[in-house]
Amino acid sequence: MAAETGTPTTLTLKSNDDELFSVAESAAILSVTIRNMVEDGCAGGVIPLDNVDGKTLASVITYMNGISAIPADEEKKKSYRDKFLSDKDFETLADMVLAANYLNMSCLMDAVSAKIAQVMEKKSVGWVRRKFGIENDYTPEEEAAVKEEHKWTFEGVETDDDN
Amino acid sequence: MENRKLDSIIRLSNLPDSVLSHILSFFPTKLSIRTSILARRWRYLWSYVPALYFDSEYDDEEFIERVSSLHKPKTINTFRLYLKDVHNGIEPQIKAWIASAIKRNVQSVDLFFTCFDNLLHQSLFTSKTLVDLKISSSSFIPVVVTPLAVCLPRLKKIHLSPVLYAGGTSLSDLLSSCPALEEVVIRLIIKCSSRPFTISSPTIKRLTVRFQLTQINTPALRYLNVVDYLSVSEDIKSWIEPPQVPKCLSSHLRTIRLVEIVGTKHEFEIVRYLLKNAKVLERMEIIYVLEQIDLLERRSEACELEFVEIF
Fold this sequence. Notes:
heterodimer; A: Potassium Channel Kv1.1, Chain A; 2 domains; three-stranded mixed sheet; 3 strands; elongated; B: alpha/beta; F-box-like_dom_sf (chain B); F-box domain-containing protein (chain B); FBD (chain B)
C-alpha cells in the first residue's frame, strides 16, 4: 500500500480486487484517464480502476511516484524506466502494458512495449503464441506458406521445442 | 495466481489491433514481420505498423526495398535506418528510402551511417512534420550535408554526431531554421576553421555539446552539458568574464555539468563565475573532485553541489 502524507492533493485509487491506494495527484495525472476524471470533477471520492488489479496498480504507482520525482531530464527518466522494468517477467510486462493502455500512460506504454520487443527477439513462435494467448488458426498449409514467404525473418530464432 | 496469469494473457490477445500495432512499432521491422506466422489476425498486422526500423546487420537492400513496397500506412511515426556498410551505387536507394519516409509525414528519424557521401535527401531538411532528428556516424558527418534550404517548423530535438565543421554558417543556419527546437545534442565537432561556431535560438532548453563553444545565445536554456577538450589541451592561461552576465545564466539555468575538470586556474574562475551569477541554479555536477569549489560563494541558496566520480 502506497501512502503519501503531507502532499497537497492526494487521490485514492481502487483496483478491481478492491485494494485502495493513495497517490499524489501530481503523480497520478501521468495517466490521462485519471487526469480526465480529475478535470471532470469525478475524483472527489475513490477512483475505481476496473481493469487493473492491486498488484499491477501498486507497481504502476511506484512508477508514477518514481518518474514524477525526476526533474525534466530525459536521460535520467530513461534510466529509471530501464531499471524499473529490468526485473519484470513477461506476465508482469503483459499486465503493465494492459494497465498502461487502460490508464492512457504513453511513456509507460512505450517503455513496456520496447521491453516486450526485447524479450521476444529470439523467442520461438510457440513461446510467443503461449505468452500472448494466441490460438493458431492457420491450416498447416497456410502456416507453411507464410513461413516460406518470410523465411528470412526467422534466422537465429529458437526452435519450437523449447519452453 | 494461475488464473490471474491466464486472465492477463487472454486480455493481451484481446487487445485491439491499434494497440498491438503500437507495441509492434517498437520492434525491428524484421521481428515485426515475423509475427505474421502467429495466427491469421497477425498475418498483415505488421504492414500497418506506423514505424520502419532497418539495420544492415540483419536486413539487406532487397529486404528493405521489398518491405517498403509492402508497407501500407500513409503516415509513419518513426523511421530508423542503421547502415554499417554502404557500398557504392546504393546511395540513390538510401536517398529514396529517406524521401519516402518524409513523404509519409514521419515524425522521428534516426539514421546511422558509416560514411557520408551525400546520403541525406534534401527533403529531410524541409519536412513539415519532423519532430525528432538523429544523425550519427562512425566517421564524420561533413557539414556540407546541411543544405542551403532548411525549414523544419516542428523539429524539437536534433542529435548530430560527430560533425566535421569546416567553417561557414551552415550548421548555425540549420539550428536557427528550426523555430520549435528545444533539445540539441552535438557530439564531437572537429573544427577545420578558426571561425567561431555560434548557437543562437530563443527556444533551445537543453544543449549538449562536445567542442569548444565560442558563443551561445539561448535565453530559454535549462540544461547545459559541455565537454570542452580543446580548452583543456590548449591550457588557456586566462579567462575573461563577459562584460554582462547573460540572462540565460542569471535567471534560467538550473543544471550545469562540468566534465573532466582538471583544476586549472581558468576552470576555477569559470566555476566561481557560474556559482556567483546563476541565481536559480539547482544542480552543478562536476566530474573530477575539487574540494575547494565547495567553499565558493553561491548566489542560489537552493543550489546543491555534488562531486561525481567517473568510473
